Amino acid sequence: MAVHDGDTLTILDGHRQQHRVRLSGVDAPEGGQPFGKAACSALVKIAKGKQAKVQCHTNDRYRREVCIVTIGGVDAGKRQVERGLSWVFTRYAPTLPATALASYQVGDGTARAVRIGLWADDAPAAPWVWRTSGEAY
User: Fold this and answer.
1) Among the listed residues 40, 3, 22, the one whose alpha carbon sits nearest the alpha carbon of residue 92
2) 56-66 pLDDT, tens per residue?
3) Is residue 22 annotated as part of the catalytic site, yes or no?
4) pTM for the whole thing?
5) Domains, in order of start, for the chain
């Protein structure tokens, strides 16, 4: 597996074909944002050298497969949210199964309450806002 950022990886299937996968229901800080590198590093630690189980349900506008990715029994998107290294992506979160969405929201609430990861910042900028702010370019 190769990790591109805090919510995107490339996975090899059983036929050694590559699939660029976007974690479903979450949005991690971009590389130039605070916690962007930390989000990427955390996903590397979750994924490196391990097999993944993917449950894909759509493709995004960049032709990435959008999937719930489970690695070693751990839902990678949920873990990123719980560690305060990703937002629940409210625009696309309803595409998650209801039980997954509920658990992501609980993890998000806990991370915010204890102010870990990006929630330690007084006013973290969501990536979907940051990308349109002009700071990204």
Assistant:
1) 22
2) 988 888 889 99
3) yes
4) 0.90
5) 2-130 (2.40.50.90)
